[in-house]
Amino acid sequence: MDSNRDSNHYFALWRRLCHVLTCPAVVYTDREMRTTKILAFLCIVVFAASCASKAPKEKGITDLGLAWVKHAEEFRAVALTVYQSAEKDLEGFIADTSWSALPEQTDAAHLPPAIIFDVDETVLSNIDFQLDFEPPFENWKLDEWNREHDATPIPGFAAFVEKARAAGVEIFFVTNRPCERDGLKRCPQRRTTIKDIAEVGVETDKDHVFLSYERGWTREKSTRRSYIARTHRVIMLFGDDLGDFIPCVRKEPIRPCTESASGESRTADLLRFSRYWGSGWYVLPNPTHGSWTRVLR
């Protein structure tokens, strides 16, 4: 009975509040008005708290891979570990002229040393683009975003390149950003890529940035690595995808590859080149996209 009485009492107060809000001309006693004002205040507080608790989440935050790259200090710690570990190996690989990070490169002792970097998720992060863009992914969306926003650096990259260049190593970038010619037969994506790399602390030029779909190249990076190996001894590779190190790892083969890769073949490749991982080959973490996602489908 007491609970019913309380319910009726609060219901009456609620009706009074609604009446005050919708019919302000009605006159109440001072006590009734004070009670109603208190109730109104409490309702406003509850409503405001409810709005705060339901504030929209950052887009993509439900994807743990995106959230980890965006917010986790562990991600940045891994990146620093990769580049600082490579820094310790640098002097030895320069001195050992019999060494190459390309298994197929032999008799390169007379060539100057070079390092090959992937770009996206290796030297700079596109996490903000990934959280912002509307699917499906298209190359023009990324290029437009990069032209309009400053690049986000991967920790450790710029400091490592500074030391490598001081030691006489030439730096190349092999990216699958496409070279799509405009009306003047220019490659605007190269300009954007050079700008992005400069924004994370490393100056470069068109002679050191190799995109896909130029000079007859495809998205298979092995041909561009071989091109650099004609004139340089490649002492290190950096990337976030198996294809930055090993040829023909995609489910959909890309020329010159002719066979589809599978989970089993990728595992076999991983083990076949085990001596290179962390010793000439350095992988940056990327749980958000890459050739691995296709193999899972």
Descriptive report:
- The model is unreliable at 1-15, 17-28 and 35-57 (pLDDT under 50).
- Helix 1 crosses helix 2 (30-53), helix 3 (64-71) crosses helix 4 (73-95) and helix 4 packs parallel to helix 7 (157-166).
- The chain contains eleven helices and seven strands.
- It has a five-stranded parallel sheet with strand order 5-4-1-6-7, sandwiched between helices.
- It has two domains: 2-53; 64-295, HAD superfamily/HAD-like (Rossmann fold, 3-Layer(aba) Sandwich), CATH 3.40.50.
- The longest helix has 24 residues, at 30-53.
- With 297 residues, the protein is α/β, with parallel strands linked by helices.
- Helices cover 46% and strands 11% of the residues.
- Strand 4 (170-178), helix 8 and strand 5 (209-212) form a beta-alpha-beta unit.
**Largest sheet, spatial ordering of strands:** 5-4-1-6-7
The whole-angstrom Rg is 29 Å
Parts with pLDDT < 50 across at least 5 consecutive residues: 1-15, 17-28, 35-57
Look at the structure and give the CATH class of the largest domain. Alpha Beta
CATH superfamily of the largest domain: HAD superfamily/HAD-like
Structural class based on helices, strands and sheet pairing? alpha/beta
Oligomer: single chain
Biggest sheet architecture: 5 strands, parallel
Q: What coarse outline follows from CA principal-axis ratios? A: globular
Please count the beta strands (DSSP E, at least 2 residues each): 7
Tally of discrete structural domains: 2
Can you tell me the CATH topology of the largest domain? Rossmann fold
Strand proportion, as a percent range, falls in 5-15%
Helicity range:
40-55%
Question: What is the CATH architecture descriptor of the largest domain?
Answer: 3-Layer(aba) Sandwich
